[in-house]
Amino acid sequence: MTADPQVNKLETEILADARTKAERTIARAQNDAEKMRKKAQTLAASKREERLREAEVQAEAQARAILVEVEQEARRHWLLAREKCLDELLAQALEQASQAEGEERAQSLRNLAIEALQALGPASCLVEIAPADAALVTPAWLQTLAAELFEEKTAIDFTVQVNPDIRGGLQCTTTDQARRFDNTYASRLRWMKTELRDLAAKPT
Description:
- By secondary structure, the chain is an alpha+beta fold.
- It has 2 domains: about 1-100; about 100-200, ATP synthase, E subunit, C-terminal (hypothetical protein PF0899 fold).
- Helices cover about 70% and strands about 10% of the residues.
- Strands 2-1-3-4 form a 4-stranded mixed sheet.
């Protein structure tokens, strides 16, 4: 029995329409899949770049931290070397100053004594000196200097005491112990060390 041509035509049209719809659906699915694939690739690339940026930031932070640490360590070594150099230099200077003799030492003591007396004013005081200076620095010698600085009739009582810890210069303390002026060689060199340290810290 031969099929009805109208039925065959209808079946053909239905199949063709179904095939077309299926092809369109498949095409859309493929297109969507391609879009999703590209989106996934873009996202993956973005994530990689983000991770790379994060890694770069971390690496830069670590590099800066290492650099700061190295600079701090270098400065610490420089400060230690500077202090050692200053200590050695001033120790040599103290040794040379304490070994000075004759007119050179006498003039040095005179200058230091005048500076101390000017700082304390016309006040009675205890003057501590090195054993090597006992023959020069006497109450009479100090009174002569005071007479040059203050009124000649000003009566100032000086007590001179040898201090074995002093290697040169003098330390003056008012009788009431309210004021003290340390003008020993060691003290002057400590002041000098502070000045040299400040000078070394200035940029060249």
